[in-house]
Structures are given as structure tokens and as C-alpha cells.
């Protein structure tokens, strides 16, 4: 309980806390303070921007999210969506009005800073550079990147190329934090081990603007036993990289057994990771303040259900989440629109 109170007042102290409070110990009903990261679970899902930013914000609110992830250009192509005048301002106003925390822009899947083709490496850097410029219009958010696929290149050269690419497009005083995602090791993906991410991070010049996004499915598929050894996995990350560098978490279940290197996401509770582990992750004192993003294969109504279910299981935020529900945000969505 002592930890909880400290945590509540000084969320930045998560890094120095040890995990002593069992997840089942629900905090007593206290009035939520206005400036804590753990009163309310920060949760959302990957959403489409196809109908514009205003429609995306509306979808996010309606499914009970207070963060989200989106592509800011075609995920399988190079084209960025045209911005209408005032579109970003309206979007940001709407997010602020509904109490959203930082969101994630996900880099396109085609972006590969360690491609064996020089042309593709340069194209990737150009796309990412443009994306980061666009992100300057939306300050304080996150840009998540798959480090790359090295094909038949040696790992060392791939890591060097990724770092060079990042150093080319990142700049001092940038307003976005770039995140490297933990990968499953499918094909020749770089980033399946924390050591590989560390090697990249060590070479990046803008240290204040780079971090990591964990993906539960990817880590499991890569071999990390987050089901039975979550604390050990986090300690390992902390030793190598530092948990202060962890800025977001993709909470996906996995269709496959551990170390399968497959990267097939499934709904929470329907895979080999299981609901209990996802609940432990969102409640873990060293993780509970992070934005949690669902990349599970379902529609908006399905995501609303998943968000609602996980909010109920968030031990730190039972008070404010009940308030959200009373306000009818989630009920309205589930009851009328679908
Ligand atoms: Zn990803
Ligand atoms: Zn992911």
C-alpha cells in the first residue's frame, strides 16, 4: 500500500519502485488526484485514419479509449495522407477535450532502414523524415518503428545502418519520441532481443528522443517468457536498456507457442499468453503508467469490449474508471451505435 501511495503522487518514481503490491490488492477508494499517471488506465487501440483525423478521434472516444495508435501514411506504401487546413488543430483540441494522453504514430511496414538496397534505405529515411516533420505539428507524441529486416546482411551492419538512418532523420529539440518496437524475430527482423535494441539505442545521438515500445506477442514469439517470468524479463530489460526508456506497450495475445517467431496477434485471452498475463502487465507498478495499445484482430465494438474489460481489471484506477463509465462513454457506444 505504501508503494501505491508513493506511486500515485510521484508517477515518475516508478523506476525506483519494486513490485511489492500484489495485483489482487485493490487500493482503497480514494479521490483520484488530477495529476497522476495511474489513476486511469491509459489504453487504446490501433485506429484507422482513412476517414480523417476527426473521425479517428470520434472512434477513439466512442470505444472508451484515452490513447490510440494510427498510421500517418499508407502502411504498405509511401503515400502520406493530405492534411486539410485546420485538421490537426481540431484533432488535437478534440483529444485534449476528452483527456487523451500521448498517442502513437506507427511507421509504415515498408520502412526499412537496414534494407540491403541503398535506394530503399534512402526512401525509408526520407519517409521517416517526412513523418517526423508532420509529427512536429502534433508535439509530445510517439513514433513507433520496426527497426528493420536485414535479409542476408550481417546483424552488425544492419544495426549500424539503422542507427545511421535514425541519426539522419532525428534532430535536436524534436518534439516526438521515436520508439523501437521489440520484434518477434520473424524472417530476418532486427530487434528480437533486447541486446539488439540496446546496440541501436547506444548509437543514437538524440538520446532524449528515443525509447522502446514492447509488444507482448512479439516478445513471447521471440522467446521471452512473459507468462511465468515477467519480472525477470523486465529486470533483464532494465539492466540492458533501462525501464525509463520504455514508453509504450502493445498488449496483444499470441496465436503461437513461445519462441515460434511467427508474429500472429490474437484477442486478449484467446492465445498462448492469456488474459491473466495481460492483466498483470497493465497493473505492474513499473508498467502501469504506460500507454497500452491493442493491436488485436477485431472491430471497433470488439475493441470497446476489450478496453472495458481491461479497465475493470485495472487495480490502480477503479475510482476514475467507474466515473468514466457513469459518464456513459462506454455504455453509449455499446448500447446504441452497434
Ligand atoms: Zn508494430
Ligand atoms: Zn506491435
From TrEMBL:
Name the PROSITE patterns for this protein: AP_NUCLEASE_F2_4
Q: Which cofactor does it need?
A: Zn(2+)
* Protein's UniProt keywords contain Transcription: no
Q: Which residues form the Xylose isomerase-like TIM barrel domain?
A: 58-312
- What does the UniProt cofactor note say? Binds 3 Zn(2+) ions.
Q: What is its EC number?
A: 3.1.21.2
Q: Which reaction does it catalyse?
A: Endonucleolytic cleavage to 5'-phosphooligonucleotide end-products
User: Per its UniProt record, what Gene3D superfamilies does this chain match?
Assistant: Divalent-metal-dependent TIM barrel enzymes
Q: Where does Zn(2+) 1 bind?
A: 106, 146, 181
Q: What class of enzyme is it?
A: hydrolase
The molecular function terms of the Gene Ontology recorded here are: deoxyribonuclease IV (phage-T4-induced) activity
UniProt keywords, alphabetically: DNA damage, DNA repair, Endonuclease, Hydrolase, Metal-binding, Nuclease, Zinc
Q: Which Pfam families does the annotation name?
A: AP_endonuc_2
The protein's name: Probable endonuclease 4
Q: Which organism is it from?
A: Enterocloster citroniae
User: What lineage does the source organism belong to?
Assistant: Bacteria, Bacillati, Bacillota, Clostridia, Lachnospirales
